Amino acid sequence: MQTKLNNLLDFLSEYLAQRKGLIPLIGMVLILVNLILQFLPLGWLSESNLFLHIGIITAILGFMLAWAL
Prior knowledge:
4 helices; mainly alpha
């Protein structure tokens, strides 16, 4: 179990080191999805701004990770 986790972390580290802007880009896409959902009558999903909050957190963590790599 521990070797699988180590291999997964090594793979993710090498993958994200070459693609530093991928995680912030995903965060920005989530923010745009939230903007589009605001105009659709979906009830709780469009009223809660769930994708906005997840997108902002993802983008900030992505910028911090890209800076560290």
